[in-house]
Design goal:
Order of helices and strands: HEEEEHEHHHH
CATH architecture of the largest domain: Up-down Bundle
Strand content: 5-15%
Helix content: 55-70%
Structural class: mainly alpha
Mean pLDDT: 82
Radius of gyration: 19 Å
Shape: globular
Strand order of the largest sheet: 4-1-5
Number of strands: 5
Distance between the termini: 32 Å
Number of domains: 2
């Protein structure tokens, strides 16, 4: 069963990596070919590319994500506070929240100065709080949900996958033990 989950998670990750996102060129480049995808970056202009290509362009310093999401230690601390305050999943500034936060953690971990290390500690702490709180809410939702979840507000693609698989796993467990369906009080 874990092989099925692992394979499904890889497929979801692949689909997510193939989804199109906007990047803004930080410098103009002649057209380049990345694995058969022809890309032309123009400084300060948005271009739509697959997420995996965007990652390469951002890491190499040719582009930035163009989703207006400012992921830094202040915004993450604020998001952690919002997530703690709300009973339902809080709104996140971008569908790429997890990837963007991990990118910022990776970027800061390469810097070797006191300011970067303090920011890194703050970002990691806030990110972990957000993820743990969201997981608790997703588990609760999986227990209560009777139908598959699709395009629910404030649910990221990775969370939707987790939520639906948890829901199916709980239903299988109930059926295997011949338990009645959960009743929402």
């Amino acid at each position: 069963m874990t092989d099925d989950f692992s394979l499904e998670l890889k497929r979801i990750d692949f689909d997510f990596e193939e989804s199109l996102v906007f990047v803004k060129g930080l410098k103009s480049l002649d057209p380049i070919d990345i694995d058969g995808i022809n890309i032309r970056l123009v400084e300060n202009q948005s271009t739509r590319v697959p997420l995996w290509v965007a990652d390469i362009l951002v890491r190499e310093g040719y582009a930035s994500y163009d989703d207006d999401a400012d992921i830094n230690y202040r915004t993450l601390a604020q998001l952690a506070h919002e997530e703690a305050k709300q009973k339902k999943l809080a709104h996140l500034p971008t569908k790429l929240f997890i990837k963007r936060a991990k990118f910022e953690i990776e970027r800061l971990s390469k810097e070797h100065n006191k300011v970067a290390l303090r920011k890194l500690a703050s970002i990691e702490g806030s990110f972990n709080k957000i993820i743990k709180r969201r997981m608790k809410k997703l588990i609760q939702e999986a227990i209560l949900a009777s139908d598959e979840i699709k395009n629910q507000p404030n649910v990221l693609a990775e969370e939707e996958w987790l939520l639906n698989n948890l829901r199916r796993l709980l239903q299988s467990w109930q059926e295997a033990l011949n338990l009645p369906e959960f009743q929402v009080d």
